[in-house]
Amino acid sequence: MKYLFVIVLLIGFIISPVFAQEAKNPSLVIDSLEIPAEEFNVVLRDAPIVKLDDIHAISWQVTIDNNLIYSNPDGTAVIRFYEQEGDGQLIEIGMGPQPDNKFWVAVTTPKEGYIVVHRDLDRGWFPETKLIISYTDKAGLTVNNGARIVVTNLDIDTFAIDSYSVHGMESSTDPPAINSGSMLLDFLSGDPSQNIFAFFPFYVAAGIGVIVAVLFLTKKRS
Asked: Is residue 33 part of a domain?
């Protein structure tokens, strides 16, 4: 009996790598896209809303790699992510040109409307790093500007991304905001509860219980 827990742990370590290679979360969705510079040279009202191939829900992360070359010191690169239900909910990320690198995060909800939840007019984002936007239906929205977390666990109700839009000009008479380059987006989403390894500790505990019961009954009968 004293070796029972050691044996079970060893079995767990041996079996886990095998399942890790074979078992996958069936809800896992991975997407990547590249947005060219010219798509940002429009005003908001003219920016088309682009549907994504997949809907990212329950738990998701978007990594933004901004490699755009700005041509207008007053220009910006703004990306909006839209909620699946189409009830006005959106998440907006704005990034200005060097050297100020202004940065803001805004959300729109049916109750409160458009709200800027974070704004930094100096060194708000960093071209040499990637921004990370993450969300879970339990913890809300978190935004990392590449150096630190600037929005933490913001409650925005249910939010499943199904589309996006980009723009960079405030007026149609402004010069182009972006000269060249592109913005790279990586999407990762899924339902953690559908990952078999989320329940692995419970399987181990159940296995220990069964083994203990069998050994106890065997010993009692003998």
From this structure: no
CATH code at position 141:
2.60.120.200
Place of tokens 């041996």: 14
Q: What is the pTM of this model?
A: 0.78
Is residue 6, in this structure, part of any structural domain at all? Answer: no
Number of H helices, E strands in the chain: 2, 14
Cβ atoms 140, 129 nearer than 8 A: no
Q: What is the DSSP letter of 43?
A: B
For residue 82, what are the β-bridge partners? Answer: 90, 163
Cα-Cα-Cα-Cα torsion 195, 197, 203, 205, nearest 10 degrees, comes to -130
- pLDDT tens, 32-80? 999 999 999 999 999 999 999 999 999 999 999 999 999 999 899 999 9
Q: Both tokens of residue 178?
A: 């972006």
Residue bearing tokens 């029972």: 4
Residue 99: asked if its preceding bond is cis (omega within 30°), the reply is yes
For the record, the structure tokens of 222 come out as: 């003998």
Residue length of the chain: 222
- Return the bridge partners of 62, or none: 133, 187
CB-based contact 213:17 (threshold 8 Å): no
